# Entry
Amino acid sequence: MKNVHELKTLKQEGRKISMITCYDAITGRIVDQSDVDVVLVGDSLAMVLHGFDSTIHATEEMMVLHTAAVARSVHKKLIVADLPFLSFRKGVPHALDAAAALLRAGAHAVKLEGVRGHEDVVRALVESGIPVMGHLGLTPQSALQLGGHKVQGRLQEEATQIEADSLLLEKLGCFAIVLECIPSEVARHVSSKLSIPSIGIGAGLDVDGQVLVMHDMLGLQMSFKPKFLRRFAEVEPLLLVAFNDFARSVRESQFPSKEESYGA
Ligand code: KIV
# Structure
């Protein structure tokens, strides 16, 4: 799938959408062979790849670098790339430049968090022919203001705001919206009001699709286990076994073998 309009068709058909984050060419190659529908070059790369404690450390340069790496190996999937912290809050010309850089790096669409205060940017991106995915609920770039990575929409006024913002994003021309860490009932209600797909993370089952951070769903960081996360593999202990096996083989002069060495 490379066409954003196909996502809407999937919603109409009641076929759920799967999206996974990806930040490099080698995992991109594997995702490209999989049944996953959409690849997200998320600004979560600042945390999972670069070791920062929040996504505000993702820069436009980092997003372009990783989007280009993914695009070198992902040829069959829709690639969405995050507009990072503040890149869409410096006015329309800057946002257009940031989005253009991501598209030139190989993305087919951009994602941005929130809508209030940058409605003009969403409109300008869409009117410029750039497919835009929204992101509401827990918006990690605003975690400092939200008081941490907390569930949003538990209060009625918050739920009403998420619904209003979703409808506004749809009206502005977004092709899909990520709903992050909101009560399932709120996500179900919002999704039923939207004609574009909602893609949930920590938003329950009654949305039109699910997204997970690749490194979390692979269990590459076993100490990280938020309530919504399901690990579809447990890779961290496997890697540890392999690294220790290598270290022991070197120490005991069991590696390399004759077959793994060059003759004269
Ligand atoms: O950056 C990211 O990985 C995301 C997902 C959590 C939706 O925005």
Q: What stands out?
A: The chain has one domain: 5-234. The chain has a mean pLDDT of 97.
